[in-house]
């Protein structure tokens, strides 16, 4: 729930847009930005050095997934774009993987005010596929 699940290319583009608009204000955001800048400085971008970025990009290894996946997202998440989850869902479906996708209208990054419903969905999913 509420994870950052985009490709590194998409994440870097999204992060760069956030930097450009000045929304990074917390110490954690500023540290993350410095770490990202350092990684790009050392390894280039996903476009200039796909070998490095693909090796650490979970979306690059979708074909290796063997268990069902559940994705839950709040439609009003301003921390992580809901489009990342939609894209991952489409990639999993295109690869023939079992995936369930739940979008909670108006819910934020923590799936509030639907956190209880999200937890119930997670338990149902766990009992159906992983127990």
Notes on the protein architecture:
This protein is mainly alpha-helical and 131 residues long. The chain has a single domain (8-130), classed as Rossmann fold, CATH 3.40.50. Helices cover 51% and strands 9% of the residues. It is built from five helices and two strands. Strands 1-2 form a two-stranded parallel sheet. β1, α4 (82-94) and β2 (99-104) form a beta-alpha-beta unit. The longest helix has 17 residues, at 27-43. The relative contact order is 0.16. The mean pLDDT is 90.
List the helices and strands and how they pair.
Blueprint: H1 8-21, H2 27-43, H3 50-56, E1 69-74, H4 82-94, E2 99-104, H5 115-130
Parallel strand pairs: 1-2
Would you count the extended β strands for me?
2
The CATH topology comes to Rossmann fold
Number of helices: 5
Mean pLDDT, to the nearest integer, reads: 90
| Helix and strand sequence | HHHEHEH
Q: What CATH architecture would you give?
A: 3-Layer(aba) Sandwich
Task: Supply the number of structural domains.
Answer: 1
User: Which spans have pLDDT < 50 for at least 5 consecutive residues?
Assistant: none
State the helical fraction: 40-55%
Structural class: mainly alpha
Strand content: 5-15%
CATH class assignment? Alpha Beta
Rg, Å, rounded: 16 Å
Give the CATH superfamily: Alpha/Beta hydrolase fold, catalytic domain
């Amino acid at each position: 729930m509420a994870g950052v699940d985009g490709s590194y290319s998409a994440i870097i583009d999204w992060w760069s847009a956030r930097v450009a608009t000045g929304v990074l204000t917390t110490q954690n955001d500023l540290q993350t930005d410095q770490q990202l800048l350092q990684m790009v400085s050392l390894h280039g971008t996903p476009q200039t050095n796909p070998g490095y970025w693909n090796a650490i990009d979970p979306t690059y290894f979708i074909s290796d997934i063997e268990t069902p996946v559940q994705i839950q997202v709040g439609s009003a998440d301003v921390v992580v774009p809901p489009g990342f989850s939609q894209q991952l869902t489409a990639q999993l479906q295109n690869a023939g993987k079992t995936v369930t996708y739940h979008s909670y209208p108006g819910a934020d990054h923590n799936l509030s005010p639907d956190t209880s419903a999200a937890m119930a969905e997670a338990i149902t999913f766990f009992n159906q596929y992983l127990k």
